[in-house]
Amino acid sequence: MLTARVIPCLDVDAGRVVKGVRFQGLKDAGDPVELATAYERQGADEIVMLDVSATPQGRHNARDAVAAVRQDLGIPLTVGGGVRSTDDAGALLEAGADKVAANTAAVSRPELLAEMAGKFGRQCTVVAIDAAANGDAWEVVTLSGRQRTGMDAIHWAVQAVEHGAGEILLTSWDRDGTRSGYETRLIAAVAAAVPVPVIASGGAASPAHLVEALGHGADAVLAASIFHESDYTVGDVKQAMARAGIPTRPAPGHGNQGSHA
User: How many domains is the chain partitioned into structurally?
Assistant: First the structure.
């Protein structure tokens, strides 16, 4: 059994980490370099950094912020926001990203995922899917949740993997920033439909929520508010995972976290 990953998320706007509810009402949460390195010290397995205003503003990702974070970071870094071409993806990889996530542009042109996977490898190619409830199903939303696409999220997940995505960053738009728990039905449905790792995102309020998401098929859990506001540390989450029997890489100072693979 592979170890489950705990991934703090840095939503970045104008060089600062921000957090809102359903991608709106963004408030300053700190410096990306300081937060990323603090989370690494706590035992984070990876960092995800998303430029939340790049696509809505029609600009490229802030590569200088990526380079600044990479300079002090020793764990994998996934970067997304404003990725419209392999040139954009390549620039982020050159700046220090290990993986690049595409969202809006991939929905508009799924071939982008195939081009990224062909040039950089599937292991570097992540599709970020923002899904909003639509009756008993989920609809893909883009442009930071401002545009409903009419696309079924499960179908798009399958299609994205077929085009070359090696990982799915799955965010429940309805749960984002609400602290109401992950949308576990969505997680289970996507995890059952695709053969690649699924990162669950949107709604965490406690370590128990992260454990619950892993129990519904997620391979990794992403959270922001609970870490930014110092409600819990990554170590707290990993202790809860160990108690639940979920294998994970040890957090510093916490000894052996469950059985490892």
Answer: 1
